Automatic annotation (TrEMBL):
PANTHER family: 3'-PHOSPHOTRANSFERASE, PUTATIVE-RELATED, AMINOGLYCOSIDE PHOSPHOTRANSFERASE-RELATED-RELATED
The name this protein goes by in its record: Aminoglycoside phosphotransferase
Catalytic residues identified in the record: D174
InterPro entries on file: AGP_Transferase (IPR051678), Aminoglycoside_PTrfase (IPR002575), Kan/Strep_kinase (IPR024165), Kinase-like_dom_sf (IPR011009)
The Aminoglycoside phosphotransferase domain, residue ranges: 33-140, 156-238
Coiled coil ranges: none
Family, as annotated: Belongs to the aminoglycoside phosphotransferase family.
Gene Ontology biological process terms in this record: response to antibiotic
Keywords noted in UniProt: Antibiotic resistance, ATP-binding, Kinase, Magnesium, Metal-binding, Nucleotide-binding, Transferase
One annotated GO molecular function: kinase activity
CDD domains: APH
Protein residues bound to Mg(2+): N179, D193
Pfam families: APH
């Protein structure tokens, strides 16, 4: 995912979902997906909200994300789903905006120490809050390899056996740092983009979150994120789950 550069054409479906409210493109991804912020400007609007639109994709779906957000909402701050749907080629998801700014907002790029601490603490809070018992979603290694196979991705045989489970939790599924929201005081306030949420070893999230600090803040912040989460580094599990992320 990245911040759009230049003028972005707004799809007709998104314009309809915005109901006349002003739109700003905030994210784009590698498969052509776009996310817009709609600013609610009248008493009749739904307030500020995010509109995700993109091509259908076998890895996950916005319907999957809507289901996961609805399940997680009683336990942890996540966006409220207002609408979701699809047509023959594309799908969309509309959620109410949460307070706070992404951990890669310029405010936090300029203060990575605070941002990394908030992301680590927020990830630990998510893992502690979401109940494994009763979670209907699976993000374990066999499920991820099966998903990759359906998409025609061949995962090396050496990746099929994971290290022993450290702690089984409900993982975010895309714990890269942009998906934590931080308030002006530097505390995490919510999580977004939970389309892959499911039960797995906590290092499946931790390894990716730590790895993503380098993409967004530069080298040297991975250990600080793990420390903020509250565990000791685990090079074996971290390496395995980084490789699995890159392979799938």
């Amino acid at each position: 995912m990245s911040i759009p550069v230049g003028e972005i054409e707004v799809p007709g479906r998104v314009r309809g979902l915005a109901e006349g409210d002003p739109l700003d493109a905030v994210w784009t991804n590698a498969i052509g997906g776009l996310t817009f912020r709609a600013t609610g400007r009248t008493a009749d609007s739904h307030g500020d909200r995010f509109l995700k639109w993109g091509p259908r994709h076998l890895e996950t779906s916005m319907a999957d994300e809507a289901d996961r957000l609805a399940w997680a909402a009683p336990f942890i701050p996540v966006p409220e789903v207002l609408e979701h749907g699809s047509d023959a080629t594309h799908e969309w998801l509309v959620t109410r905006a949460l307070p706070g700014r992404s951990a890669v907002d310029p405010r936090w790029i300029a203060d990575p120490e605070t941002a990394v601490r908030a992301v680590g603490q927020g990830l630990r809070a998510l893992h502690d809050a979401l109940p494994v018992d009763g979670c209907p979603f699976d993000w374990g290694v066999p499920a991820r390899i099966a998903n990759a196979r359906r998409r025609g991705v061949v995962v090396p045989a050496t990746m099929h056996e994971a290290p022993p489970i450290d702690r089984l939790v409900v993982c975010h599924g895309d714990a890269c740092v942009p998906n934590t929201l931080i308030d002006d005081a530097g505390a995490w306030v919510g999580h977004v983009d939970l389309g892959a949420l499911g039960v797995a070893d906590r290092w499946a999230d931790l390894a990716v979150a730590a790895m993503s600090t380098e993409w967004n803040y530069g080298p040297g912040w991975a250990d600080a994120l793990v420390a903020a989460y509250g565990v000791e580094p685990d090079p074996v599990r971290a390496a395995y789950y980084r490789d699995l992320w890159n392979a799938t």
